[in-house]
Design a protein that fits this description.
Number of domains: 1
Strand order of the largest sheet: 1-2
Order of helices and strands: HHHHHHHHEEHHH
Distance between the termini: 31 Å
Number of strands: 2
Shape: globular
Largest sheet: 2 strands, antiparallel
Oligomer: single chain
Helix content: 55-70%
Length: 279
């Protein structure tokens, strides 16, 4: 399953939490997709052997499963064991390549790995996982964030890892300070605002408690998203990835930019759903 599609798992839970109805059939399709991946996962990860995409390919689905409150299973046990064993001694998780923005940053990988260990860690290894999360927290405190998404994910990772309120406040102010005059956030200082950067900032700030949907900054960000939505309901975001794979249509709009636009659309819904639900 592609990393971007996993955001739809979170979309289902977010809409539920916002008091909006989600489509049960979509949830089942996504769960079935994970089940279809099980043979490949069990064959390689049990022997600590990575396939294509490395652990990036299941960090996102695990986060989606956690958001949907899916119970632990043998499959999640094997994934979490692999994630734990791949942690760098410094405390972070290092990727094999860079495919921005989903597979661009060790900050993002570390945040997602913390999420996986917290939600699907084995009770018998709790002390070990707590130590790994503490090491990840120390790494995140000293990490240099190159992008807005880095900074938003750094805030989320520190919050998940139990960082102090003062440390969280410092990072949240950096994220807030990157909001543009149009109400949005850009992925990097060299780009215009877009749905991905905006939704990443809004979601992180709200989830960690530093913005409420009624706050002016959140309302401005939500309005930016509403202003940039296409008539068909999607959001367009230009891809920053070097084109390494043969291109094919996935039935989402925007041709060569459809994968990141798909993810950005899901992320935008996650940011807007609490506004729609008044939460």
């Amino acid at each position: 399953m592609r990393s971007g599609n996993a955001n739809w798992f979170s979309w289902i839970q977010i809409t539920k939490n916002a008091g909006l109805s989600a489509e049960p059939r979509l949830r089942q399709i996504l769960v079935d997709g994970m089940i279809a991946e099980r043979p490949k996962v069990m064959d390689r990860l049990a022997y600590l052997t990575m396939g294509g995409g490395g652990y990036d390919s299941f960090l996102y689905p695990l986060a989606g499963f956690a958001d949907m409150e899916e119970p632990a299973s043998v499959e999640t046990d094997v994934m979490v064991h692999f994630i734990a064993e791949e942690q760098d001694p410094s405390g972070t998780w290092i990727g094999l390549g860079s495919r921005p923005p989903l597979q661009e940053s060790s900050v993002t990988r570390t945040m997602l790995a913390i999420y996986a260990l917290k939600h699907y860690g084995w009770p018998a290894r709790q002390a070990e996982f707590d130590e790994r999360i503490a090491r990840a927290r120390t790494w995140l405190l000293n990490a240099r964030a190159a992008t807005t998404v880095d900074e938003a994910d750094r805030l989320m990772g520190l919050w998940l890892a139990g960082a102090s309120e003062s440390d969280l406040t410092k990072v949240s102010q950096v994220v807030l300070g990157r909001q543009r005059e149009d109400g949005g956030w850009a992925q990097t200082p060299y780009l215009d605002s877009d749905a991905f950067g905006t939704a990443a900032a809004l979601y992180s700030l709200r989830k960690t408690g530093f913005l409420k949907v009624s706050d002016p900054a959140y309302r401005r960000g939500a309005q930016y998203l509403l202003n940039t939505q296409f008539p068909d309901g999607s959001w367009y975001v230009r891809s920053r990835v070097v084109k390494l794979q043969p291109y094919f249509q996935s039935a989402f709009p925007f041709d060569h930019d459809q994968w990141i636009s798909n993810t950005s659309t899901a992320y935008a819904v996650m940011a807007l759903a609490p506004v729609a639900g008044g939460r």
